[in-house]
């Protein structure tokens, strides 16, 4: 399964919400939302995923190595 195109999903949701449509089609998939609240929740989800995708990933997993020497 290919990675989602968050920008495309967000644009489709925003366009659907602006036009009052409850059925949104993006990348060949069609989803019918029950309410504007559901569309807003989907927008929040995809915006969060898009922001997460921009964050740099650490390779160390948060591990710190300290070295101590006595003189």
Structure description:
The termini are far apart. A two-stranded antiparallel ribbon has the order 1-2. The chain is rod-shaped. Strand 1 and strand 2 form a beta hairpin. With 71 residues, the chain is mostly helical. The protein is built from two helices and two strands, in the order αββα. The mean pLDDT is 84. The chain has a domain at 6-54.
Give me some keywords for this one.
71 residues, 46% helix, rod-shaped, mainly alpha
Short note summarizing the structure:
This protein is mainly alpha-helical. 46% of the residues lie in helices and 11% in strands. It has a domain at 6-54.
Question: How do the SSEs run, as a string of H and E?
Answer: HEEH
* Strand line-up across the major sheet: 1-2
User: End-to-end span in angstroms?
Assistant: 57 Å
Mean pLDDT: 84
Indicate the radius of gyration in whole angstroms.
Answer: 20 Å
Q: State the total count of DSSP E strands.
A: 2
- Class by SSE composition: mainly alpha
pLDDT < 50 stretches: none
Total number of helices:
2
Major sheet details:
2 strands, antiparallel
Tell me, what's the shape? rod-shaped
Which percent range fits the helix content? 40-55%
Estimated share of beta-strand residues:
5-15%
Topology:
Elements: H1 6-19, E1 23-26, E2 29-32, H2 36-54
Antiparallel strand pairs: 1-2
Helix pairs in contact: 1-2
């Amino acid at each position: 399964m290919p990675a989602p195109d968050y920008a495309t999903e967000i644009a489709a949701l925003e366009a659907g919400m602006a036009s009052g449509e409850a059925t949104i089609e993006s990348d060949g998939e069609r989803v019918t939302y029950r309410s504007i609240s559901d569309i807003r929740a989907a927008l929040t989800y995809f915006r969060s995923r898009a922001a997460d995708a921009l964050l740099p990933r650490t390779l160390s997993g948060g591990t710190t190595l300290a070295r101590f020497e006595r003189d």
